[in-house]
Amino acid sequence: MHSYMFLFLILNKNNWLWYITLTLLVLDIETVPASPDFQHLPDYWKGLWEDKMSKTMPENFSHTEWYAQRAGILAEFGKIICISTGCFYQDANGETGFRLKSLSGDDEKKLLLDFLGILHTFRDKRNTVILAGHNIKEFDIPYICRRLMIHHVALPEMLQLSAKKPWETNMLDTMELWKFGDYKNYISLNLLAAVLGIETPKDDIDGSMVRDVYYREHDLQRIAVYCQKDVVTVANIILRFKSLPLLDKEHIVIS
Hints:
This protein is α/β, with parallel strands linked by helices. It is 45% helix and 16% strand.
């Protein structure tokens, strides 16, 4: 079993709260197609897209439609426009709180470098970083790593995952927690929140709307708020797995 998953399961509530307060950094990313639409792609990249999609695009879709729907989730054809992070803390009264920070913008390389700065600062203050999120192992972290490589930015040691065994990676994935050993299972963050009685993060926009909010409205603040809600939802799911009270909104701080 993954070592961090094992600790998650065996630590009692008091030790576990201490553990996550010191080590856990919850994150979520929002991505969009790198080009506003398929027509704006250079011809060479149109060919690369058509080749990539040749065996998976449904017959009733055009490349223009499929690009709009799918390019954002592929690191080769998309880009990150927002990264939100959150960490637990305990105040002077022993109340559990949660501190949020969002990075958003059009300059993806700057956004990624600022995110690496957060990682380094967190690690330097707490000696270690355990990254947490929903489907973080299959989407958020691989996407971040690929985009760093595309921008010629060296991966920090904590993101050099290729040669590591599964139990050596420093990640806690709420999708994996919900699988309980069933590797066929997939569950969205929205559905997992609903079945656990946690407030939905999709009360304004959802992932399918981020592209239009970015390219048509350029409302990065709205996207950042949506991304922050996902991070808080993941934090509450983690608390719920330990049968602990959910975060009080008064103890959620945005920095």
